Amino acid sequence: MGHLSIKVHLFRVLGLLALSPLLAAPAPAAPHSRHYIDQRTGVDAWRWSGEGISLQLIQRLPDQTRAFFLARGFPRPAVERLASHCVFQTIFHNTAGSGGGVVHLDLANWRIDHGQSLILKKQWQQQWRRMDVPRPARIAFQWSLFPTVQQFAPGDWNMGMTTYPVAPGATVDVHFSWRRHGKLHHGVIQGARCAPDVDMEDKTQ
Amino acid sequence: MRRLWLALLVSLVLVPMAGYGAGQSLTAMHPRPRAPGFALKDMNGKVHHLSDYRGQVVLVNFWATWCPPCRREMPSMERAWKKLKKQDVTILAVNVGEDVDTIFPFTGNYPVTFPILLDQSSKVVKRWPVLGLPTTFVVDPRGRIAYRAVGGRKWDAPALLKTIRSLIPPDKKPAAPTRTGAGR
């Protein structure tokens, strides 16, 4: 009888041991989006996290865009064309653990309000060729924009600019998607405000 | 019985913690593709062929000065280099699209002692499976890509050093300390 009781206890304990990772591991947090102020730069930023990924959109001032690309050999008209659009510094992170699977990202599937697509790298490069933007400047542009298609293994992340067909200062809802294990997932960052441009009239007063 | 409860308690604490080290990880390549060869000049004009390093473990890091995560990971790469260079591990940091005049001031703020190579035309990076910067590859002694890291890492993290060291051929690993008896 004593042996039987010990065996029952043993099975219970082993059962608990098997379940313990599930009991003690933090439950996956529900997806959530939040607005914050970037501590270093003071600009507005938005972060969506959940389902093993995180996405951050950080305002990028038109003047930052101008300075960055002028310093890399962009002619003024090309820089102004870029700076007249909404640009976010974008950070995507596959935060899933080692068994979480590869994330496939395709910016061509992302949308903002009214179903508009983002302006992708290829579209810009076509414009730069027409505008005779020098090759070194186009190389810098190629690497500074977020890749249109990319795969992220667990722990991988990337940072780059994403560009939108709206003017600086506009507010957009960014509907994004990604694939993991073949399944399409969706998320949305609502009310992301593109950094406004400097008002030259205000400056001269 | 007390031992079983102790085991349960330990598992409750330790098993979930096992996943927390996953932040610093490398993606293993299966199968290992051949690393595309290159011949690139360093800051002093010396040409480095990737094939010169056959037989060693090589970290090939693609980066640019304007890329914030590239800058952030550089100091940890330098610390890793100091720990690994005596063990036949090489780091080659391939700058994409910039010239010496741009990179030189950068090295004043981020002093590194491993070679910085110049891929100004970005011809080399296009032959590697790179979509964003930084991306780093760990090339095994047979010249194959064994691991890949997209995005910055803390390269002197023990988990990463362990993974890199696992590729060092046994005959080149530092000998384990042996017990030398006084009477021998």
Can you walk me through this structure?
The complex is a heterodimer of chains A (205) and B (184). By secondary structure, chain A is an alpha+beta fold. Helix content of chain A is 32%, strand content 32%. Chain A has helices at 2-24, 62-70, 76-83, 121-130, 135-144, 200-204, and strands at residues 32-37, 44-50, 53-59, 86-94, 103-106, 149-152, 157-164, 171-180, 183-193. In chain A, the strands form two sheets. A five-stranded antiparallel beta sheet of chain A has the order 1-2-3-4-7, with no helix packed on it. In chain A, strands 6-5-8-9 form a four-stranded antiparallel beta sheet, with no helix packed on it. In chain A, a hairpin with a 6-residue loop joins strand 1 (32-37) and strand 2 (44-50). Chain A starts with a helix and ends with a helix. Chain B has 184 residues and is of the alpha/beta class. Helices cover 30% and strands 21% of the residues of chain B. Chain B has five helices and eight strands; from the N terminus they run H-E-E-E-E-H-E-H-E-H-E-E-H. Chain B has helices at residues 2-17, 68-84, 100-109, 123-127, 158-165; strands spanning 27-28, 39-41, 47-49, 57-63, 89-96, 116-119, 135-139, 145-150. Chain B has a six-stranded mixed beta sheet. A two-stranded antiparallel ribbon of chain B has the order 2-3. In chain B, strand 5 (89-96), helix 3 and strand 6 (116-119) form a beta-alpha-beta unit. The interface between A and B is large, with 36 and 35 residues.
